[in-house]
Amino acid sequence: MAAAVPGRVYEVAAVVGADALARRLASAGVWPGTRLELIARAPFGDPMLFRLHGYRLALRRAEADRIEVVVRGAATPGSGS
Amino acid sequence: MSEPTAAATVDRRRVALVGRANSGKTSLLMHLTGSLQRPVNFPGTSVECIEGDVRVGGSLLCVVDLPGIASLEGHSRDEQQALLRLTRADEAPDLLCAVLDASKLIVELHLLAELRRLGRPIVVALTKVDVATAEGFPVDVDRLQRAIGLPLVVVNGATGAGAEALRQRLAAALPDVGDVADPAEGAADAVAGRRAVQRSRTDRIDGVLLHPIVGPFVLALVLLGMFQLVFAVADPFIGWIEAAQDLVGAGIEAMVAEGAVRSFLVDGLVNGVGSALVFVPQIALLIAFVTVVEASGYMARAVFLLDRLLRKVGLSGKSFVPLTSSFACAIPGIVASRILTDERDRLATIAVSPLMSCSARLPVYVVLLAAFFPAHQAGLLLFLLYLLGIVAAAVVALVLRRTVLRGGVSMLAMELPVYERPRLRVVGAHTWHAVRSFLRTAGTVILFATVVVWALGYFPRSPALHARFEELRAAVPAGAEGDVRRQRLDAEEAGAYLEQSWLASIGRAVQPAFAPAGFDWRMTVGVLAAFPARELVIPTLGTLYSLGDVEASTDLQDTRLGDALRTAKGPEGRPTMNGLVALAVMAFFALCSQCVGTLAAIRRETHSWRWPVFTFLYMTVLAWGVAVAIYQLGSWLGYAPA
Asked: What is the ipTM of this complex?
């Protein structure tokens, strides 16, 4: 996920691990099937800002890397949920 | 507002507002109860519980706003506190009011499912329906209500619309606990699955404020604005407080005969109260500013932009909030550290917060810079002193995170809320609360410490000394010129008393330790007097140099202390102060832990004596080391006073 491209929509395949971070991601709505859109990156590319379930979630690159995704196409009106 | 005694005669119902941070709980509480009656809080997010009572018909609702939770697992201290409050038998609420943010309803429904497992009656308050629409995901409220099968009231946290309906619903018959089955499946259909707008207002603002080049530039401007507010805007208010202090002091002097009682009242009590109050304008302005930044949604963006930089020194982007607050005063900064999810991040942030040059150091810098440096150098040196604190904080944080605070799971994973216009009422309530909290905790400590320093500086009183000055005064002729001489004699007498006081004895005993830094015994006494609270150094030095009252002020009008410092002579008639010594003194003040209030706050926030003791020791040693290094290096280069 850390290699995500802005404007593209990804679908969560799995979250690696079962630690506090994985639980945190789950409570933030990062579930298998959730669609993630990369909105922006902070200077030097880290952290990253994603849209999911209609809200914005900031994740560090290391945190985003725990999310395994598949590409679902470009963010156009009508995607992102 | 109901008195606790009234509760016995009416139906008393405990209602807990439960939901994520940013779901609008605190403004909801304000709309529900009319005000924040017992707020205990940090700007923007609910860090401690806030309570408020409201009477609805024949029943009394005691509403408590719990710290924000995203799940029932409790990652941060806030979340753990909230969970404790929810599950503890003696305080468990009769009714949960689940505050759900419509703009991320899918995620909120999972939280709701978890809350239902607690087995308590739940009323849902749905907030930010307008935000959901603006963001392009409108919510079908009727459909949602049918799906979740719980009482649901739509409220607007900004305008308060719906608060009355929610109040009635909370006071009405308790709803059934209901089916614990996960309702998310059907309820999810209540949200439009397709985004109706391409770019919302928040997307457009983020396009600028999170821009790789424009974003950091705007952040720097915001910080600059904060400094300007804290230092320039607060100054007249500080002047008024000092004027009021003088007025009260003069009033007491007119009413109470000269002696220990008068000195205690004026120099101990009134001065102590004034020393605490003088921080209020800066703290109030800073908290108001931080609350506006937080409530507008920008604070989360600042954290986002700075996370990488702060992580390089072992802190977190979230450390930005407490560290920024600490430039005004470390006390609210240390309290603000609670937002840090990782305990090690939090402790490291707390330990380095007092290194940020707070507003109490500024008068010391201003007096010494004005006395020993031309204006064009003074500005640069002032900047370097602030930088010294920041660099020291980075180094200390790095060392701590590599040694005693190694490891831990530092997480960012935070929501960036939509931009909103801050509400004046919320800002006012937070500011008022912060001031009250400061006066209650730090204010009393500062007052007490001031009285102790007064006593050490006042006693013992030698009758022989007084008799000598009486003789001298008697010899002065009457008239205007004589009055001036008599005033100078009074000041000299005060100086002579201080020179043989316990404080001076301690100062002389300790002076050898400060000799390598170039401090003479008078500067040492000033430094010692400043340990409870930094602002005490200016009046103490004023008395030592027999100047009478010298105000700790940031304006440059009062140059008498500067002049006295420049011309001060040691026992052999050599000057004791110069630019080099002033630099060593300022570096000492920049790095030293001279604030009992801060240590009290650290004790309260870490629940142990270890951290306040550690902070005090490392800062004092660091300050001494840097002061000695500056003086020794300067002497070697030939800048020692001669």
From this structure: 0.90
